[in-house]
Specification:
With about 250 residues, this protein is of the alpha/beta class. It has one domain: NAD(P)-binding Rossmann-like Domain (Rossmann fold, 3-Layer(aba) Sandwich). Helix content is about 45%, strand content about 15%. It has eight helices and seven strands, in the order βαβαβαβαβααβααβ. It has a seven-stranded parallel sheet with strand order 3-2-1-4-5-6-7, with helices on both faces. β2, α2 and β3 form a beta-alpha-beta unit. The protein is globular and about 45 Å long. The protein starts with a strand and ends with a strand. It comes from Pseudomonas grimontii.
């Protein structure tokens, strides 16, 4: 069976590393991005240099119309999707709950909860035998924050990842009999430009001493776990969470 993967938020960090590893594993790849076309095309070039058939598609995954267009694009250019990595996510500046605006909270919930649910919906519409599919694999990129709550930092982000964990569990049971596996990875402090979104680009370096392994993680370390969960090597794993937090 041809392996076709959609990686949301594939233009940077964990998403970009996952795309590079997927290329080495023989996937056809769709790199989805929201706004940074230059970064997406840079990853696209690297992926194609590794010999993979790949495309980059702009879409806001929190809008169903755009998700529908994204999947149609993949149908036409790469074939029916067999793997989905729900990696697109956002965080806002460090803040207490009593300082948060409705706009901020809605933005985080739309991107981190609604987006993955919509993408999973349209993946299942292609993977499930009920819809003519042959099964597939979904990996949601959650966060150690879902277990820790991120007090004084971004409780709204942690809550969105808690919702994603529960969605992972529920969907995994719903489609387990249809040859679709649904799992999640929960990264901790990883060296990516994601932390710049919270207003503190050096956050990981500052917090390393509090991590049991005494270092931040690398995006490729998370990508390895994602690709493993997508693969047949994880054939009996569904509803599973892989914590990649260096012991946090």
């Amino acid at each position: 069976m041809d392996k076709v993967v959609i990686i949301t938020g594939g233009s940077r960090g964990i998403g970009a590393e996952t795309a590079l590893l997927a290329a080495r594993e023989g996937y056809r790849i769709c790199i989805n991005y929201h706004s940074d076309e230059k970064a997406a095309h840079s990853v696209l070039e690297q992926v194609r240099a590794l010999g993979a058939q790949a495309i980059a598609v702009r879409a806001d995954v929190s809008s169903e119309d755009e998700v529908i267009a994204l999947f149609h694009h993949v149908d036409a250019e790469l074939g029916r999707v067999t793997a989905l990595v729900n990696n697109a996510g956002t965080v806002a500046h460090k803040s207490r709950v009593d300082e948060m605006s409705e706009f901020r909270i809605l933005n985080i919930l739309k991107t981190n909860v609604l987006g993955p649910i919509l993408c999973a919906k349209h993946a299942v519409l292609r993977m499930s035998p009920k819809h003519g599919g042959q099964g597939g694999s979904i990996v949601n990129v959650s966060s150690v924050a879902s277990r820790l709550g991120s007090p004084g930092e971004y409780v709204d982000y942690a809550a969105s990842k808690g919702a994603l964990d529960t969605f992972t569990l529920g969907l995994s049971k719903e489609v387990a009999g249809e040859g679709i596996r649904v799992n999640a990875v929960r990264p901790g402090y990883i060296f990516t430009d994601f932390h710049a979104l919270s207003g503190d680009p050096d956050r990981v370096s500052k917090l390393e001493s509090g991590i049991p392994m005494a270092r931040g993680g690398r995006p490729d370390e998370v990508a390895e776990a994602i690709i493993w969960l997508l693969s047949d090597k994880a054939s009996y794993a569904t509803g599973t969470f892989l914590d990649l937090g260096g012991g946090r």
